[in-house]
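In the previous chapter we treated chains in isolation. Here, by contrast, the input contains two separate entities that must be folded as one system, with a combined length of 1355 residues.
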Amino acid sequence: MLSLGSGGGKSTKPSFVSYVTLEDMKIKEKEEGLRSKHPYLLPGEVVFCSANHVLKYTQEDASQRGVYGTLLCTNFKIAFISGESASQETAPPFRNKLLSENDIPLTCVDHIYGVSDEKKKLIIGGQVKSKYPSKLIIQCKDLRVFHFSLTYAKEEEAKKIFQGIVHHSLEPKSLKCVFAFSYCETASPSQASRKSSLTLMFETKEDWSMELGRTKGNCKVSSANEDYAISEKLPQFFVVPFAVSDDDILRFLGKGIPFWCWSHHSGCALFKMACLPTIQEDGISQKYMHRMLDAVTQDQLCPVKIEDLSSCLPALQDLQLSYNKFKQLFLIDSTTEFWVSDMKWFSSLENSGWLEIIRQCLMKAVEIVDYLESAHTSVLIVEEHCSDLCCVLSSLVQIMLDPYYRTRSGFQSLIQKEWVAGGHSFLDRCNHLYQKEKEAPAPVFLLFLECVWQLLQQHAPAFQFSETYLTVLSDSINIPLFSTFLFNSQHHRDTAMKPGHPEAQRSPLNFPSVWDWSLQFDCKAQSLFTNPLYVEKPIQDKALRKTSHQKHQRQLSLPNTLSKPSPRKGFFKEETDNLKKIFLGKRISKWLNPTESSKELYESWQRKPLDYQGLLLPYLDGPAVRVWMQRYLRWVPEAQIFGGGSITTVNRVLELASEIQDLQKEVERRSCRMNSSIEWKQVYSGPPLSARLSSFPFTTTHAWSFKPAIPSSIRQGLGSVSSLADKEDDDSQGSGVL
Amino acid sequence: MQVLGEFGFRLKTETMASASTPTYNSNNLENNSSKNASRESLRMEPLADVPQLPGEERITDKDIIYICPFNGAVKGKVSITNYRLFFKSFEVDPAMTLDVPLGVISRIEKMGGASSRGENSYGLDITCKDMRNLRFALKQEGHSRRDIFELLFRYAFPLSHSLQLFAFLSQEKFSENGWNVYNAILEYRRQGLPNNKWRITFVNEQYELCDTYPTVLMVPFKAPDEDLRKVSAFRSRNRIPVVSWIHPVNQAVIMRCSQPLVGMSGKRNKDDERYLDTIREANGQTAKLTIYDARPNVNAVANKATGGGYEGEDAYQNAELVFLDIHNIHVMRESLKKLKDIVYPQVEETHWLSSLESTHWLEHIKLVLAGAIQVADKLSSGNSVVVHCSDGWDRTAQLTSLSMLMLDSYYRTMTGFQVLVQKEWISFGHKFSSRIGHGDKNHADADRSPIFVQFIDCVWQMTKQFPTAFEFNELFLMTILDNLYSCRFGTFLYNCESVRDNMEVKEKTVSLWSMINSENGKYINPFYTKESSRVLYPVASMRHLELWVSYYIRWNPRIRQQQQNPVEQRYMEMLALRDQYLKKLEELQISDSPRIANNSNSPASPTQLVHHVQTPL
C-alpha cells in the first residue's frame, strides 16, 4: 500500500501488476498460456475500456491511502485489478466465482458521485460532458462504496473510463444488452443448464400437481394459459378452484381469478387475485366476483376472508422512499461520518420507516395466518396486479405455517412459485435497464428477504438455511445473469430467450437460474448456506418425507379437520359489500382491527412449547425487530467486531457439529468392527472454520486493522442534559454546586 | 402495533406458566409454583411453601390482591419475612407467585384512602430498585393496611429502624467460602508485582492514609511512604494514584486516583507532580503519561470552584490530559429512570427507537465503553495511564475495571471476574451503600445512582460482542445484580473496607461468591473458549450496543419469552450428544483394543478432541 501522505510515493511510478492473484485464476490463465494483465473474464464478457494508474482508496481511511491498479469496464462489470492487493493470507477465505472483491456488476451500481475541486456531485446518466472528475465514488446496491482517484491516470484513459462507466451503468439500455445474453451465447450449454433438482420451478404442470398433492389441496391445475394463450402476465400453468372454468379465466384475461397458493391441513386455503379492470359495470363484475368466491368456498368448504393489501400496506413508492432513506444510513464515506451518524442512530433508523414497514408486513402475514390456522377460513389476498406485496404476504404466510418452506429447497421452490411463476416484475422493480419512464422501482423482493431474516434471527433452529444464504441471495438480485431476476414474467423470459432470428439454427438460450449456486460458489462456500442450528425433523419422518409430514401437521390440530362442517359457509354479507368497493377499484378503509384477531393466536401459540417444525410467529415488539447487520454493516470497517460477533458462536456450533459427525462415523465404524483404517480419512471436510473471522465470510478481513475504533465527536451528543450534569457526584463534599 | 402490544397485559396467568421451559432470566424472583393446596386451606392457614433461607423469620401473613400490570388483579396471600415478600395467588391452576427480597424495595407508599372509591384503589404501591413496581390492594374496612405497611416499612428499611440487615441474620452455609476469592497480595503477585519498579506499601494498614482505600496498595518503588503522605494531601479524599494493573509484557500500568485539589487559585503540588513523573518513568517507554479524566471538560473546570480540578499543562509537563466526557451519577440515575418509564410496565411501542434514544442510557454505556477502550488501547501500545474522575470511586472504577477486562483474559473467567469486582469496586471504595441505599428508607437520596448496574451492562455488552470470550453467562451477571440489592450477602454492603472491617462483614455475613461458586455450573457460558493474551476491543457504536432486554424488561412475561437463546439451547443439546458418542466410543475402545484407551474421559476443548479422533487409529 502506498501512502499519499508522504510526498515521495506520490509522483513515482506506481506499480500496476494487474492480474488477480487468486489461485484458480492463475492456474486458468497459465493453462491458456495467457500470462497477461488481462482480468478474469467470463464467457461472453468483453472489455469496453480501461484505465491504468487508477488509485483505489482503501476504505479504512477514506482519503489518505490507496492501491494502484487498473480500472476497467466490461459488458458485465466494473472491475479494479491490482497486484498490490490480496496477498495469499489476506484473500477472503471464500469467494464468489463470478466476481472478485473489487468487481461491481453494472446492474449493481446504485449511484455514482464525481468529486472535483472538493465538491461532490451526483452523476446522472446522459448528462456527462467531456470533463471528468478527479475522484469517483461508486455506491453499490449491495451497500459497498468504492472511491477511485483518476488523478494519476492518463487523461485520455480517465475520460474514457469515466464515460464508459457512466454510460454502461447509469443509462437506459435494452434487455438484450444485459450480460446474460452474451454469456449464454458463449458459455457451453452444459454449464448453464444444470438445475437444482430439488427445487420445483413451477414451469410444468407436474410441479403444480406435486405441490397440490403435497398440501392436499382441493383444486385443479389449469392449462388454459398454455403457450400464453390468455395472458402474458400469467404463467402457463396455475392452480384454481374446480369451479373456475377456462372461460372465466378468459373473461378478464386472468384478472379477478382466485389463484391457489397453498392449502392448510384443515382444508382452507390461501388464494391471491388481481383486481378487476375498473371500467366494468357494477352488475357484471359483482356477479362475476360472486361466482369466483363461490368457487373458492365450494371447493374448500370454508368461508373466505378477503384481504385487500392496497388498504393496509404502504404503496410501492413509499417502500422505495423508505428504503432509500434506510440504505443511506449504511453508505458511509468516512470514519468521521460514521461516528457523527452514530449519535442519532436510533432516531435515524426510526425516521427511515423501513423497520416499521417490515413490521407491518409481518403483522399482516400473522393476521392471515390467524384466519387459516385458528378460524380455518380461506384467505384471498387481493392486490392490483397480485404480483408485489401479494407475493411478500403469501410467501411469508407459507413460511410461518409450513416447515417445508424453511428448508433450502422448499424456500427456493416457494420463490419460484410465488415470485417467478407469480409474475413479480423483477426487471422493472430492480430497474436493471435504467428505464426511468417504466414503473417505479421498489425493493419488494428485498422486503420479503428482510422479513424472512427477522423470522430467522428470532427462530434460528427453524430454518435450514443461514443468514449468509439470505445475504448472498439478496446480492444475487444484482448480478445480471440469472433468469430468476431478469424478467417481468415467464412469458417475458420465454420470448426474450428465443433466438433473435427465426431462421437461426440455435436452440433457445438457456439462462442459468440463481438456484444453480455452483455457478457462483464452490462446495465449501456453499456449506456456509446451511444453518448449523437447524433442527431436522425426527428421523423416522425422513424416509416418507411428504406423507408423514402431512400427518405430523394434522396431529397438531386434530379437532378441526376437514370433516367438521364449517360454521359459516359462504362469505359474509359485510364482505360482499366490501367486495363491490374493491372491484370497482375504490379504496376502502380498514374494517377490522388487525391485532384484535391475532392476539389469541399468539396466546395459544406461546402456551405450547415452541415446535420448530410447527407454526412460527414473529415477535413484533420494538426490541424484537432488528437491523439485518450482516447485510448492511458488512462493509463498514468501523462496525466490525474484530474476533467477535455472533459468527464466533456459529463457528463453535459448526465445529461441534463436525466433531459429532466424526464421532458418529467412528462409533459406526468401530461397532461394525471394520478394522480398515483406510476408510477413516475424511475428518474436516468443511471449510477451515478458524479462518472465518468476519461476520460475512466473503469479505477480506485484512483491511480491518486491529486498532480499536474510538468514537469521535462524542461531545455533541449529550448537549442538552439537564442541570444535573453540572452537579457534583457527592453533594456532601462541596457546597458550591454549579 | 399498538394493539399487538397490549395483548400481553391481558394474558391470563396460564400464559406465564406456559413458559414451562425454565426461562433463562426468570431467575426465580418471580415464578409460578405448581398446583397446591386448595383455595380453602390457603385462606385458613399461613401461606404454605414459602421459600425460607436459614435465618429467615416469618413476620406476617395477609390476604391481599396483587395488581399485576400484565395479568390484572390477582387475589392471594402475602407473606412477609425479614428477608422477603412472598405472594401466592389463591388460584391454583397454576398458582402465580411473587418472590421479592425486601432489599430491592426502594419506596413504599400508601395508595388511596379509607374513603377512596373504585375497585382496588386502597392499598400499597411499592417501587423497586430492579425496574419494576408492585401494587397491592387491600380491603378498606378496619385500616387493614396499617399493620402490613408498618411491618413492610420496618423490614424493608432495617437500617432506618435500628435493625440489622438480613445478611447479618442469615445462617446460610455453602461449600465454598467466597471471602477467600480475593486476596490483594495474591492478585498483585499474579500480575507479577511487586517487582523492581513497583512495591507494596502498608502505609494504609490502619486506614490512616486514606479511609476509603484498601490496606494493601501498589506504588512506585521510588516513592517512599513519606511522599505518599504528601501526595495524599493534594488528592481529593486522599485517594492517591496507585496501581490497578500492569501489562505483563510492556510493563505499562493503569493507575487510579481522585482529582487533584487544584482549586480556583490553581494550586500546584511538587510532590504530586514528581510522583506522577515517577509513574511515567517506571516502564521506561512512556514519553508522556496519559491522564484520563473521566468527566466532561466543563465539569472538571467547574470542580475547581469546590477545590478540585484537573492536572494543568504547566504543572504536569510530561503528561497529557484527556477528558472522556462521562457524565455524573445524577445524570445516570435520571437516564435509568427514563428507561424504566419506557419499558415498565408497557414497552413503548409506537416510537420505540427514538424513545430509547431519548433516555440516553445506551449513549452513556457507549461513552463508558469508549473511555475504557481508549485506556486499553493506550496501555497496549506501551503507555502508562492515570485514570480519575472526581473522587475516583464511580467512573474511575468503571473505566479501570472495563479496560482490565479488555486487556486481561483472566478477568473474563468466573473467578477472575469476582476478583475484578472485589478489587476495583469493593476494595477501592465504590460507595455501594450510598449508591444503592441498602436498608435505608430515604429513596430520594441524591447519592443513589446505578453506576454498578451500568458497569455490569457494559460487561454484558462485551459478552454480546464476544460471545466466546467470557467464562460466565448472562445469569451470572443477573445474579450479581439481583444480589446487589437483596442484602442476602455481605459482598456489596457498605461504602469501603474500613467500614466493612468495623462491621466485621467477613466474619458475620456470607459472600455472594460463596453461593455462586458452590453451584458454579449454572453460570458457565458453554461457548467459552479459553484464550490468553487477547485484547478485546468492543465496538462502542450504537450500531452494536443494544438494550439488555432480558434484564431491563424481564418482568414482562411476553418479552421474557422472546429472550430465550435458541443458539445456546441447541449447543447444549449438541454437547450432550457429543458426550453420548464419546461414552459409546470409550466403551467400544475398551472392548476393542486396550492400546488406545487414553484420555477419552476428558470432556475437554473440542479442538483437542477432534485432534484425538483425527489421528488414524
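The mean pLDDT of chain A is 79. Chain A has 26 helices and 15 strands. Compare these points with the single-chain example from earlier in the chapter.
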